[in-house]
Amino acid sequence: MNGRGGVRGAIARYRGRDIELKTPAQLQAMREAGALVAATLAAVTEQAKPGVSTAELDAVAEQTIRDAGGVPSFLGYHGFPASICASVNSQIVHGIPSSSTVLADGDLISVDCGAILDGWHGDSAVTIAVGDVAPADLALSDACRGAMEAGLLAVQAGARLTDVSHAIEEACRAAAMADRADYGIVAEYGGHGIGTSMHMDPFLPNHGEPGRGPKLRPGMALAVEPMLVAGDPETMELEDGWTVVTAAGGRAVHWEHTVAVTEDGPWLLTAPAGAPDRLGS
Ligand code: MG
Ligand code: MG
Question: Where do the structural domains in the chain lie, given as residue ranges?
């Protein structure tokens, strides 16, 4: 599941915590894993239509990953039974794909996917509008995607970790103002370091004051993944032990990309193959 495969990077120590540093060649390997995740999410998005079950989407994802010689990193992760998390409407994250969860017109589904290729991890999530979705829900998803993009752009060498958190929070606030909406940032979950494992140090909060935490250095890789809720962001976990839902029942969205710190700015590792992946340049 962790796919270490003898490719561990150097380690930067900061306040006793370990952050894996990748060589340029190792980041290139992560770029390939990331492109596979992007291809998988594109295949799932293509199939996410009314009448399709989330179990069917999961099958598409697993097939796409395995056909490319990858391994679905979610499958079996702490016992998780599928290759994607499929979180519909008021489900925020970690929804378990099921043949009884059938998409309907107007649904929002967040699909989170991870793959291991040659020992390196990619992790990315999209929120997909199924059929004709209410404008307020589309605005919520756009706000979350914009907040993710603001966070990705803040992944700069020499910046502090919580500069990224702050950029995400500020973008959420600005979007809520612009949309005259009440958007809640989910605080219990956040982004993370990634590389030879999916979840590594450091934890990346989606809100907070800037200028704190480890200094970002070339070779670090982070998953930036804000989760936004319409209204109250308090969460609840369902009895399945996985699915996280909004306690108040508001709709939720989730966007995620894996990004590397480089001398030349953020490198979007989970961009589709051939797509522009150097941010801010
Ligand atoms: Mg993810
Ligand atoms: Mg993640």
Answer: 10-268
